[in-house]
UniProtKB/TrEMBL annotation:
Signal peptide: none
Stretches assigned to the Alp7A-like C-terminal domain: 209-348
Domain Actin-like protein N-terminal span(s) in chain numbering: 8-185
UniProt cross-references to CDD domains, sorted A to Z: ASKHA_NBD_ParM_Alp7A-like
Protein name per the record: Actin-like protein N-terminal domain-containing protein
Native source organism of the sequence: Neobacillus rhizosphaerae
Length: 384
């Protein structure tokens, strides 16, 4: 039997973050796809093997889980340069979008070609034990079961077309097991436990906590008490940062005539250390502070209202942690609002990477623990 490799994958709206094996490989790809009708032309084909695969992901995806099957896609950085690039729309369900599956399967295939799975000529047979997650709202609606069943029990094939180093390779992906976790619960696990699920934050473990996870398309507020997520009190909202990033991108285009490739470019402008909120216009450094401040402050006010409403219903809450890529974008605005208004006990992760990788890290902890427990059960002598 083919050995199953651990994969922890967070298909975030901005990008997909994935951790593989024994923490030996991490991957971050912008969550952008563009449909292709034919093999893309390559300038200087002889240089193809000198380029990075992640910058030239060009694949054909075959999977019974897809609504539209056997199509060719550009993915990530390559897709961002296309005129028909697609990012997930606000209001869409992560579990029901083909794009979520395309990104997930592309990431697994990119890992599989580096690994030691069985290979016959140009075909690799890869087997994964996957830990991933969905927004709380979708889990509450029972969509996690449907999402899991789409993945398990089928063979999914990713064929690399004009992709540096991997052109012509095909990867058949099977899942030994798929665990789909609610995102708020995963954030709590990551806060209090290490990679071996040992408690590392004793101060937090018995506190009443809110975790406000601001994503691209949605916001989850998990309510933690007695070391558990209170499913009845936890709430999911159709409010993320994507619409605001799109509005900033559009206003920069209208006002300054500058076309940004993707929402990720907007995030980069807002969050970078140097020249924050500045773009180059015809070679001149130009501030877009007026645009970003107005739009992001408006979104921060809406996010703060969500916090206030949930806190009022859970009045004995001791602290709220803001996590996720959206919290990273809105951090300064939310802090200012809180200082001027209610003064709740709120906390952010100053380490940007920690906040952005929180879900992938949590899924890794949960799926490795699941594998450990399963192997222990198999190894235990049967009771006579």
């Amino acid at each position: 039997m083919t050995k199953s490799r651990i994969a922890a994958v967070d298909v975030g709206n901005d990008s997909i973050k994935a951790i593989f094996g024994e923490l030996e490989y991490e991957m971050n790809i912008p969550n952008i796809v563009a449909r292709d009708t034919e093999d893309r032309p390559v300038i200087g084909i002889e240089e193809l093997d000198t380029k990075e695969p992640l910058d030239g992901i060009h694949i054909k995806v075959h999977s019974p889980a897809l609504k539209e099957n056997n199509l060719i896609y550009r993915v990530g950085n390559l897709a961002a340069k296309s005129n028909n690039a697609v990012e997930l729309d606000p209001g869409s369900s992560k579990s029901e979008e083909d794009q979520t599956l395309i990104m997930l399967l592309a990431a697994l295939a990119l890992d599989a070609v580096k690994g030691d799975f069985p290979r016959t000529k140009n075909v690799i047979d890869a087997n994964y034990t996957l830990g991933t997650g969905l927004p709380l709202r979708e889990v509450k609606e029972g969509k996690d079961a449907g999402y899991r069943s789409k993945l398990i029990g089928s063979v999914h094939q990713v064929e690399f077309l004009v992709t540096p180093k991997y052109q012509g390779l095909k990867v058949n992906i099977k899942f030994n097991e798929v665990k789909v976790y609610p995102e708020g619960f995963a954030a709590f696990i990551n806060l209090v436990m290490d990679n071996h699920l040992k408690i590392i934050n004793k101060d937090l473990i018995d506190k009443r906590i809110l975790i406000q996870d601001i994503g691209g398309l949605s916001t989850d507020i998990a309510v933690i008490k007695n070391r558990n997520v209170d499913d009845d009190k936890a709430q999911g909202f159709n409010l993320g940062v994507s619409e605001s990033l799109e509005a900033i991108r559009e206003e920069i285009r209208t006002k300054h005539g500058v076309e940004l490739d993707s929402r990720r470019d907007v995030v980069e402008i807002i969050t970078r250390k140097n020249d924050r909120n500045h773009i180059m216009v015809k070679g001149s450094r130009t501030s877009v502070h007026d645009i970003t401040d107005r739009i992001l402050l408006d979104l921060a006010k809406k996010q703060y209202r969500l916090l206030r409403n949930v806190w009022q219903k859970n009045s004995q809450t001791e602290i709220c942690y803001f996590v996720g890529g959206g919290a990273h974008v809105l951090k300064d605005y939310l802090k200012t609002l809180n200082n001027n208004l209610d003064g709740y006990n709120i906390e952010f992760f100053e380490d940007d990477k920690e906040s952005i990788w929180m879900m992938a890290n949590a899924y890794y902890k949960l799926i490795t623990d699941f594998v450990r427990r399963t192997e222990k059960q198999k190894a235990a002598p049967a009771k006579s």
